[in-house]
Amino acid sequence: MFSILAGWLEGVRQVPTCRCGSRPAPLDISLIVVHGITLPPGEFHGAAPYIDGLFTHTLDKSAHPYFAAVGDLEVSTHVLIDRQGKITQYVSFLDRAWHAGRSAYLGRMECNDYGIGIELEGTDDIPYAAAQYHTLRELILSINQEYPRTRGHLAGHSEVAPGRKTDPGPAFDWQALDLPRRLSQVSAL
After folding, report:
1. Residues 26, 32: contact at Cβ < 8 Å?
2. Is 43 annotated in the active site?
């Protein structure tokens, strides 16, 4: 289990970003959204330097042709789990990360307001690593303990932004987590 102090995981790599905001009052952290990301697409490099750069607005857009299209996106996440299962945290859980975009869960709009975003280094069609599932499960259990309203409220990005997002994709094995979750009714946003 991980310790959480003032919204920050203790003992993990921290790379704070200004790409975040305050959550609306009253504070209601009640959802965990799982995402998948690689930069460049399909290449695994861990957090640094590309994923860090995307989330902190320091991505060198000349380092790869794909980066010109994504380098100015205003996105972030709370946490990234790389292929080795190592965590990087960018945004305090108490703040709103910009991970889900236009989204809804169980009929409630704007998941960034009440959700925690967890990115996994991976793609829709390449199996995720065993170390990632292990870390993800431990992280979710720790979040559930600190923020009890998240228990059972676990969704993929594709489920909260259907038709717009596909991650974490069919290669992600939800059953490997062995955690309960309520499935959001998929509907156009």
Report:
1. no
2. no
